Amino acid sequence: MKPNVLLIMVDQMRADCLSMLNHPVVDTPNLDQLARNGALFNNAYAATPSCVPARASVLTGMSQTSTKRVGYEDKVDWNYENTMPGEFAKAGYHTQCVGKMHVYPTRNLCGFHNVILHDGYMHYNRFKHTTKSVESFEQTDDYLNWLRDKAGSNVDLTDLGLDCNSSTVTRPWALPEELHPTNWVTTQSIDFLRRRDPTKPFFLKMSYVRPHPPFDPPEAFYSMYRDLDLPEPPIGNWAKEEDSTNAGLNPVTSEGIVPKRRLERAQAAYYALITHIDHQIGRFLMAMQEYGVYDNTVILFVSDHGELLGDHNLYRKTLPYEGSAKVPLILADPGNCLGLNKNTQIDKVAELRDIMPTLLDVANIEIPSSVEGDSLLSLWKNENTNWRDYIHGEHEHGVKSYHYITNGREKYIWFSQTGEEQFFDLVGDPKELTNKIEDPNYEKQVKVRRDQLILELVGREEGYTDGKELFAGRPVKPTLE
User: Fold this and answer.
1) Tell me, what DSSP letter sits at residue 141?
2) Taking all residues of the chain, what is their mean pLDDT, rounded to a whole number?
3) Active-site hit among 94, 97, 102, 312
4) Which of 75, 240, 297, 413 reaches 20 to 30 Å from 443, CA-CA?
């Protein structure tokens, strides 16, 4: 029988928050062990670092220009011909998703045989004055109904007073830990091991909403970090250091000067949510051993994007900086199904669109011609000597809309509305503290990356370039025609 495939996806986890990478405080023992049992990709990125476009690339293996999602927009139909779970299902796999999908319509299976759904607090189906009853949160969300059955009909996700984008405000989870949405994803996934078809291999996606806000870790995990000396966020010499409008006081701020203790509590809660997920992954790995599937399952762990967490006085995601755009990506083979060297770290640049072809390759399933990513197995096998030199990323973000080019060693950013440029030497300056765009020592590298961006943008409907130079100020939108 072919190997089982487990995709563990988290939401808004920074790439550097692994103890294996010597983070000064975060403890991730189970993720560390997954990396020891496989390959850790040190330069993995979300080309379009917010939930909707990032997850579209994971689902389809396509770039943002092919999914048409170059920004964040809800309520746009997901009607892709080829999807990762669909290809697994056609190949005879029993397919299941537990947790976050963030697609539309909300209950769209997108190729899975079944979805047990919790997308988190989704504004478009929580706002009762604009939502049809068939699309309401109560109708579509499985976790909320489960929670009310366990804890009472009046319980809601907003009881803690935290918005789904509360970027700097936190408080511990108030109910028993087993009722937390992180535990729920694990519990439901263990139940799938009981209910799965034993005559077929399985493709299971465990999709955790955390460490995306609200920052609501169980007290046992919050207490692990609350009193530690936490690292101060890096502030580049290019960063905005004034906050004349007090934007940092907004609980859902994306930039500004946040009161020091509030920021420290947010950091502690964010790290606590990651360790909580890590422990729940450990719980599921033990269940896999109990059900006898651990040794014939290949596991991929990834986040859809990162979290700035105060870097350069910025918060949340969307922007092209390392805290936001870079993601953890681990491919583990605990039972040695693939026969490859373990405890390996790979520095070639990877992107979320590589996940679908990688996992199809693991299962020896034909990769559809629509897929634009590449299998990471070729890097792990050290077979691909012609791997891509860079990835192109972008995001519609109002006046801060941008495009970026990176290979994991350097990064060029062009803000499409203002024409501002940035260039970072990520080897010598991994925290992006110094913008080298005016440094004559980097003039050649800047031109190479700018020319690569021009090539990527030729023919785009926005009219960003004539093939020779970049044009700032062109109208942008989150979804291409």
Assistant:
1) -
2) 96
3) 102
4) 240
| pLDDT tens per residue, range 75-86 | 999 999 999 999
Helix (H) or strand (E) holding 472: none
Active site residue: 51, 276, 279, 395, which one?
Answer: 51
Among residues 142, 111, 141, the alpha carbon closest in space to that of 125 is found at: 141
Give the side-chain half-sphere CA count within 13 A for 300.
29
Please report how the helices 260-290 and 29-36 are oriented relative to each other, as an axis angle in degrees rounded to 10.
Answer: 50
What's the pLDDT score for residue 262? 96
Contact present, 434 and 239 (Cβ < 8 Å): no
Third-level CATH fold of 392-457: Arylsulfatase, C-terminal domain (3.30.1120)
Instruction: Measure the CA–CA gap between 446 and 239, rounded to whole angstroms.
Output: 20
What whole-number distance in Å separates Cα of residue 259 and Cα of residue 431? Answer: 22
Strand duo 94-99 + 202-211: pairing: parallel
337 assigned to active site:
no
CATH homologous superfamily for the domain 4-388: Alkaline Phosphatase, subunit A (3.40.720.10)
132 has pLDDT over 90 = no
Q: What is the pTM of this model?
A: 0.97
Contact 209, 11 (CB under 8 A): yes
pLDDT interval class at 133 (50, 70, 90): low
For the cut 80, the answer to whether the pLDDT of residue 125 exceeds it is no
| Residue among 198, 221, 184 at smallest CA distance from 94 | 198
Q: Where are the domains of the chain?
A: 4-388, 392-457
Task: List C-alpha distances in Å: 181 to 146, 304, 397.
Answer: 10, 18, 29
Give pLDDT tens digits for 334-362: 999 999 999 999 999 999 999 999 999 99
Find, among 51, 49, 47, 183, the residue nearest to 121 by Cα: 51
Q: Is 312 a catalytic residue?
A: no
Q: Are 324 and 400 in contact (CB under 8 A)?
A: no
Query: Residue 41: what are its φ and ψ, rounded to 5°?
Result: -95, 110
SS3 label, residue 324: helix
Question: For residue 134, what pLDDT is reported?
Answer: 67
Per-residue confidence (pLDDT) for residue 130, from 0 to 100: 72
